[in-house]
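Q: Mind making up any chain with structure tokens?
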Amino acid sequence: MRGRLAVLSAYKEPLELREYDVPDPDPGAIVLRVSQAAICGSDLHMYRGDSKSPLPASGRAMGHEGVGVIHKLGDGVTADAFGAQLQEGDRIIHSIITWGCQHCQLCLMGEHNLCTGKMTAPPAGVFPYFLGMFADYYYVPPGMPVFKVPDSLADEVVAPVNCAMGTVTQGLISAGAGEGQNIVIQGAGGLGLMGAAMAKDMGADQVIVFDRLERRLELAEEFGADHAINVDDYTSSQRVELVRDLTRGRGADIVLELVGIADLLIEGVAMLRNGGTFVEIGSAFPGHTVALDPASLVVSGKRIIGSPMYKPLVIGQVLDFLARTQQIRPYHRLISHRFDLADINEAFDQSEWQKAAETPVIRAVLIP
């Protein structure tokens, strides 16, 4: 039996769909049949070459965010990370953050997402081939945590769990989100919408969301935002003052940057109260700098932290959260566009941010 896999052979060039034999899983591994795979912002960065690193000669398998059904279980795989029994046909979400190397100080501290010895994907065309989610099948290597999906959750609700939802949830946790806080979210894409819902569930008093697309701002209110503000209506300094006004002169406890625009760091730090925390998530690729006077941090006690991905445990927490709150938030609307896997290049084209005004994609999924 053979399956298709999307491969990036050259930056900014159309993705290729290559066929490979579907492997049997090694002991401890799982082969999934992909149900839906979402196009993440990092996929667009990779496609454009923003990583500034050369591609392997044989190309790179693409895609990481999505959900699948167990096609085959490797020997020894009987349960998910929480002990729920697994069998062929069950839907699972895999953590794209592995348990790490298991012997460095960071892993011993439980910081698996910070481990520098994490497994990296081999070039395309190397066994077991299916190491990208833009495919008919996906190979979950031994040792990668998986979580059984509750029957009550639809594929379109859980497709973004193992990247967008997990990442923004980890950012809130790392910043110490909790009761009575004022939280600003820069960007109302998939991460921003989920961030608004999660922040309110964590007890935030006010969630303030900024974006420039009205459709996203309307959705942000449905996802729990108390204020959804169009950035084009205000200058940067006016946005800072607006946050001050909305928080009675105090400023935000937490600001999440989810867009990937470096200058938003300066604006976001200015929005913080003394002692507040700015969380950088969107600028995941190098090459963009800003000028910041470090004395402004010393005097105010403000913090700037980077939050890379998530700890694997967060995936289970997000699934529980979705099952508990799906009646009050329209999670099914996170997925705005659906494409056949064969139309992957059209999907990438429409998902590009500069086209957002024409086709306001929140999250697009590919369906094999």
